[in-house]
Design the sequence.
């Protein structure tokens, strides 16, 4: 009997380890994007995701933009590595940003920080170029945290918020509605939240079922679309920064309930928020 039980448990374990078939999603909205990056062993997901959001925002407007994450990594050398999407906005406001081809990821550790950006016959400092792709105060940071009053700015007490940035606090359903409306109006959104859930699987490219617990801040991705699964359920298309080795070439699909309950913060343009 014990031997038979052992074999049954082994069978169940093997079945559980088998990879589920790829889910076919149908796009409702898909914003243009630059190629999926790989942050490697770094903690710079917040920079990759926020830059990806700015890129897709501009490309959707017809303005081709591809930005250098290596520039941000070099600027942050010997400083905090973990941070939030708002940190990236602060950095490019203070120290600028450059195009990817000016400071590519593969050579950032060998090159000094560039002092100029040359485009269309004009010369810009990194700060001047940054203002052309992300104007000061262009983005609003949103959160939904019941520990703080709603409909006012709050400072989230999180280790990654070491700059003490402020977030506009709104209810979960309102935050979800703003994200959906932004994407449907062709505005990319940067998502920051919790991926420490059994329902989050990069290997399968899906973030779905989860426990309804307070989210922790441990990853960032850009939201660049809305899709439906074969059952008609709504998922958000996420541009991750872990390379392309998954069923969707590095993209992921996050269910609306997962996003609703596991979001720490999102970032979108004020135009997107006000629509």
Sequence:
């Amino acid at each position: 009997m014990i031997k038979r039980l052992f074999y049954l448990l082994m069978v169940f374990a093997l079945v559980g380890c088998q990879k589920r078939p790829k889910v076919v999603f149908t796009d409702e909205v898909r914003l243009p994007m630059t190629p999926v990056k790989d942050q490697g062993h770094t903690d710079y997901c917040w920079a990759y995701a926020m830059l990806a959001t700015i890129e897709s925002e501009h490309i959707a407007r017809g303005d081709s933009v591809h930005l250098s994450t290596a520039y941000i990594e070099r600027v942050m050398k010997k400083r905090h590595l973990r941070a939030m999407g708002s940190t990236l906005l602060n950095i490019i406001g203070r120290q600028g940003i450059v195009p990817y081809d000016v400071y590519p990821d593969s050579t950032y550790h060998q090159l000094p920080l560039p002092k100029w950006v040359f485009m269309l016959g004009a010369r810009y400092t990194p700060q001047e170029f940054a203002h052309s792709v992300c104007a000061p105060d262009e983005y609003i940071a949103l959160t939904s945290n019941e520990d703080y009053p709603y409909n006012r700015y709050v400072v989230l007490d999180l280790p990654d918020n070491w700059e003490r940035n402020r977030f506009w606090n709104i209810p979960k359903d309102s935050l979800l509605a703003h994200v959906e409306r932004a994407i449907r109006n062709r505005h990319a959104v940067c998502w920051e939240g919790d991926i420490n859930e059994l329902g989050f699987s990069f290997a399968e490219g899906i973030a779905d079922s989860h426990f309804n617990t307070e989210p922790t801040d441990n990853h960032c991705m850009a939201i660049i679309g809305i899709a439906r699964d074969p059952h008609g359920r709504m998922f958000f298309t996420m541009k991750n920064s872990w390379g392309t080795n998954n069923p969707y070439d590095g993209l992921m699909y996050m269910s609306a309930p997962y996003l609703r309950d596991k979001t720490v913060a999102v970032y979108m343009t004020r135009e997107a928020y006000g629509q």
Confidence is low (pLDDT under 50) at residues 1-17. Helices lie at 2-17, 45-60, 69-75, 85-95, 126-133, 172-184, 256-262, 270-274. The CA atoms of residues 61 and 186 lie 9 Å apart. The longest strand covers residues 219-228.
